[in-house]
UniProtKB/TrEMBL annotation:
It holds the Pfam family Abhydrolase_6. This is AB hydrolase-1 domain-containing protein. Residues 34-282 form the AB hydrolase-1 domain.
Length: 299
């Protein structure tokens, strides 16, 4: 099937604890798989620019990879459990497992944006490193502990008002500030329709889920062990990101990760795959090509 004629396949999958997980895939399943994981309070619609039929550059993705995206629990069209047990790290890993099994993937790449980067620690805490072909951080935090080391001051300042359960006006104002920080200061903002869709995601996220997402903890042991064992990682940061300290991220990852590739995208903010789509696409695909080539080369 030609990439341009590919249609999005939609599934509602069941995680191990019964939570429904909404997921989509597009492209040729025989190609290397890349699973896209969105960030805090939004949903997989953040990747519409990559998935949408007719969008510029979509075929360039599908010529080389099979794309999958899903709404993480609590977000979008997936289930929204409120009990603390539903937010243990293993539950988030089981959601990813359900997506992998639901689309018949083997050793996918996982590409996580922003707070979605915590999913990498969830996966590696519950699976061996060879479960993945590689990990990609897109302006992302690799673990819950890293959030407080890598978040820029504006990001940290948003946590208390997001946790405020008494004022809808505070939530609305914080949500709008949050979305405004997705792009580099002074650059073109997100299209109005996408802004409104993402705002709807934020405001429809149950407050109990929001609390669990912001305050959950993780054991980083397996994350850093995977880095030392040679799991390939790509980190992409925007030089004008208001929410993540790209320099601090690079320093942390370079000190802990054996096979690490770091790219700083000039002029991009917190959403580099939307702001600089062609550049980020080539960075990601080059990483995938390199890893696939090394995995298939004869010893």
């Amino acid at each position: 099937m030609a990439a341009s004629s590919s249609r999005i396949v939609t599934k509602v999958l069941q995680s191990a604890d019964g939570t429904p997980i909404y997921a989509e895939a597009v492209g040729d399943a025989s190609k290397p798989s890349v699973v896209l994981v969105h960030g805090f309070a939004v949903s997989s619609i953040a990747f519409d620019g990559i998935f949408g039929e007719g969008d510029e550059g979509r075929d360039s993705w599908l010529d080389e990879v099979y794309l999958v995206r899903y709404d993480t629990r609590g977000h979008g069209r997936s289930g929204k459990p409120a009990d603390p047990a539903s937010w243990e790290s293993r539950r988030l890993a089981e959601d990813f497992d359900a997506v992998v099994k639901g689309f018949g993937m083997s050793r996918p790449f996982v590409a996580c944006w922003s707070l979605g980067g915590l999913t990498i620690t969830d996966i590696l805490s519950n699976n061996s490193p060879d479960y993945l072909s590689g990990a990609i951080l897109l302006a992302g935090y690799p673990s819950s502990t890293a959030v407080y080391k890598l978040a820029a001051p504006p990001a940290l300042a948003m946590i208390p008002p997001f946790r405020n359960t008494t004022s809808i006006e505070t939530l609305q104002a914080t949500a709008q500030d949050f979305l405004a920080a997705f792009t580099a200061p002074g650059s073109t903002p997100l299209p109005f329709i996408l802004q409104q869709a993402l705002l709807g995601n934020v405001l429809s996220l149950p407050r109990g889920c929001m609390e669990h997402i912001l305050m959950r903890t993780q054991d980083e042991t397996h994350l850093w062990n995977a880095g030392k064992s040679g799991l390939p990682m790509l980190a992409v940061n925007g030089t004008e990101d208001p929410l993540v300290d790209g320099a601090a991220s690079a320093k942390m990852l370079q000190s802990e990760w054996k096979d690490i590739t770091i790219h700083s995208v000039k002029g991009a903010g917190h959403m580099p795959f939307w702001e600089k789509p062609a550049e980020v696409r080539e960075i990601m695909l080059s990483f995938v090509r390199r890893v696939v080539r090394s995995n298939t080369s004869p010893l």
